[in-house]
Design brief:
Keywords: Aminotransferase, Pyridoxal phosphate, Transferase. By secondary structure, the chain is an alpha/beta fold. The chain is built from 13 helices and 13 strands. The longest helix is centred in the C-terminal third of the chain and has 18 residues. It is globular and about 70 Å long. Bound molecules: pyridoxal-5'-phosphate.
């Protein structure tokens, strides 16, 4: 955070929000002697998070990516299978597919929300079905905290007999039709990376209602160790468990989750005010965001109507030492996935070209918020 040595600290997009309570809990975990992965705070963290997300079981893991990886293995993803991934996502979603040896197939999003387009998903599943492909899973992503359209996606996946692994890395605390994010699909993955709504510095969780799935994921995450005194192994496992010290951080953060989401929500409202009278700019995902955790607030600019583009705004913010960033570069545009198949019509490309995420963190001070809002106002007025 102090990498920049200017008179004023750079205002970041979504820095961690930790304080005294987190410090106390971590110290308590260290003093308890439970330093290794596993321990009472991991158990308590899993239980609290399962409850919060309306799930029977939760397995704490070292990252959200690890949760996706193990969920996909459990769904049967591997060489010779296909996994459908929205092209508008962070690379972790597609990387987890690659780890299993399955083929990622990218599908475009709806422009209003940036989430997986149900009609295109259906089209893709039909195409894959016709060619006799084995589709191991579909991974809807809850982009920037907005739940994917599960009401439409789940019945489609069910009709094709395909498992749903929900990537809820960005949506902890959000609700969709009264149900919590993380409660959708056979399995869901959470992330507690440093930039998410709450953090364990690094960590993740797999959520499911199926006891056998939870047990198997727990086993795979601890080097697939058989219950024998001499460490017997019959298959390849992973070292993916969360440490007890980090679970302590997570428990403290979870106590403050709603308060932190409230701050992000207030920031979004302030951005909506600032851009209210500006033609050619919309606050992304603003309509219908009542249940969203508002992880990141973005604007989408129509350069013809606005007379400026998202990069002009990014440059102006950067000059004021304020961080902003385009939306995720779509996976079908990424060099590493250049050979992957996709069904895209341009929605994700449009959002990438014209969207910009603004400082959205709950740790932003009132002074920092005022600086950002004043910089935005000045930019708009100068145009
Ligand atoms: C952050 C994120 C992940 C990965 O989580 P890590 O804990 O950083 O491994 C996966 N998917 C999405 C959409 C994310 O934003």
């Amino acid at each position: 955070m102090t990498a920049h040595q200017g008179a004023r600290e750079r205002i970041l997009l979504s820095p961690p929000d930790v304080g005294r309570r987190e410090e106390d809990m971590v110290v308590e975990a260290v003093r308890s002697g439970w330093i290794a992965p596993l321990g009472p705070m991991v158990d308590a963290f899993e239980q609290a998070m399962a409850e919060r997300c309306g799930r029977r079981h939760a397995v704490a893991l070292s990252s959200g990516t690890a949760a996706l990886h193990l969920a996909l293995l459990q769904a049967g993803a591997g060489p010779g299978t296909v996994v459908v991934v929205p092209t508008m996502t962070f690379a972790a979603t597609a990387n987890a597919v690659a780890y299993t040896g399955a083929e990622p197939f990218f599908v475009d999003c709806e422009e209003a929300t940036g989430n997986l387009d149900p009609e295109l998903l259906e089209q893709a599943l039909k195409q894959l079905d016709a060619e006799g492909a084995t589709v191991a899973a579909v991974i809807p992503v809850d982009l920037l905290g907005r739940c994917a359209d599960y009401g439409r996606l789940l019945p489609i996946c069910e009709r094709f007999g395909v498992a749903v692994v929900s990537d809820a890395a960005e949506s902890l605390g959000s609700t969709c039709a009264g149900r919590p994010a993380g409660s959708f699909g056979a399995m869901a993955a959470l992330s507690f990376n440093g930039n998410k709504v709450m953090t364990t510095s690094g960590g993740g969780m797999l959520l499911t209602d199926d006891a056998a799935t939870a047990e198997r994921v727990r086993y795979l995450s601890t080097q697939a160790r058989q219950p024998a005194v001499h460490y017997e192994h019959t298959e390849i496992g992973y070292n993916y468990r969360l440490s007890n010290v980090l679970a302590a951080l997570g428990l403290a953060q979870l106590e403050r989750l709603d308060e932190m989401i409230g701050r992000r929500r207030a920031l979004r409202a302030a951005y909506a005010d600032v851009f209210g009278g500006t033609s050619g700019v919309r606050v992304f995902q603003r309509p219908g965001d009542e249940g969203d955790n508002c992880w990141l607030t973005a604007v989408v600019v129509d350069p013809t109507e606005a007379g400026w583009d998202a990069d002009d705004l990014r440059a102006a913010l950067d000059r004021a030492d304020i961080e902003s960033r385009p939306l995720w570069k779509p996976m079908h545009q990424q060099p590493v996935f250049a050979r992957a198949r996709s069904l895209v019509l341009g929605a994700a490309d449009h959002l990438f070209a014209n969207g910009l995420t603004l400082p959205s963190g709950s740790a932003l001070t009132a002074d920092q918020v005022n600086t950002v809002l004043a910089t935005l106002s000045a930019f708009i007025e100068a145009r």
